[in-house]
Amino acid sequence: MRFVSQVFQTDIRASMSSSTDQPGSLASLLGTESSAALSTQSRIPVTLDWTEKPKTKDGSTTPHKDEVESIVEEMLDPTKVKTLLHFSRVCKAFLEKSQTDLDLPSRTLLASLILNNITDRNKDETKKHFWPKKSLLRIIEECNVAASSCPSFLLSAIEMRDLEVVKSCVEHMQDIPDNILTKVLQFFIRHIQGTSNGSQESTGTSSPETSTACPVSTACAQCLNKALCCPFNDTFIVDSLRQFSFDEALVLLRYLHFLLSTMPASVQDDSTPTLNIVADWISALLDAHFTQLILSPEARVLLAELAQSVQMQESFYTELEAVKTILQSFKDSVLVPVKQTSGSYSIEVLTI
């Protein structure tokens, strides 16, 4: 616990301008003491390992943990790490040492502190942006960082328009808050689809069974699929979806209609949203923009096509239920012989 406490104190000294004369305490880390200097770290819901850590005879931590601690202190201090090359070198050392010398909760905690520190360094508009992209991607992919522990970082990646970092966060962070998830969808629609429209890129492929063409580009569809597969609360997501402009809502609704009309009954991989997920997103989007969709002449055709697709899906599954009943009756009428296992010795009488 001494190691985690020292890391928090170091991060506070490096990121905040408060006084460092007063030593940190466990009570301040747990939020029982209100302090403006701890406002950034106090909202980080991380899982700490309360088990006793191995120590030396004099009560100090092991030399390996002290080495990782010094590396993290250097990474969190902007006065020591001023260039991207220096940060990349120190980050590589941190990832290698922490993988062997730290347990997973401690490693995840330190990684979230590093990401939050990068976010704080970019808040000062008077200074040049500090964005070590390759190192950030390695931290996201290898350290199992929770999005709830560094929500501002994902927002910073969106502000930086770093598509690769945003995609990596969506792929490796499983607990993205609903309000940030909607901002990710907006980013994909504005950045990727807007760029595709500006360059007159092909709008994707059409279904082999229908003439319905994908309303977004292939790159945008891949990114939207990953975001749509993220877990969300179907009640709270409605308020966040109201942040969409009407045009953005139409783009997303058209794509969801495309998925509903053309997707197979069984999805082969986890990167494509299932029928239930598509239905939940359509329902939430309709609830969020109900009035605009009803009053807009542009959306009437889309709503009519959407209603028709829903009716076709309903009829399809109704027929499947009928087939299921018929198959069950056949199964009950046909007696399938059950092989009886005999012991090591048995007498069987055969009648001809």
Automatic annotation (TrEMBL):
Residues 134-351 form the Nucleolar protein 11 C-terminal domain. The lineage of its organism: Eukaryota, Metazoa, Echinodermata, Eleutherozoa, Asterozoa. This is Nucleolar protein 11-like isoform X1. GO terms for molecular function: RNA binding. One of its GO terms (cellular component) is nucleolus. Signal peptide: none annotated. InterPro entries: NOL11, Nol11_C. It comes from Acanthaster planci. It comes from the Eukaryota. GO terms for biological process: maturation of SSU-rRNA.
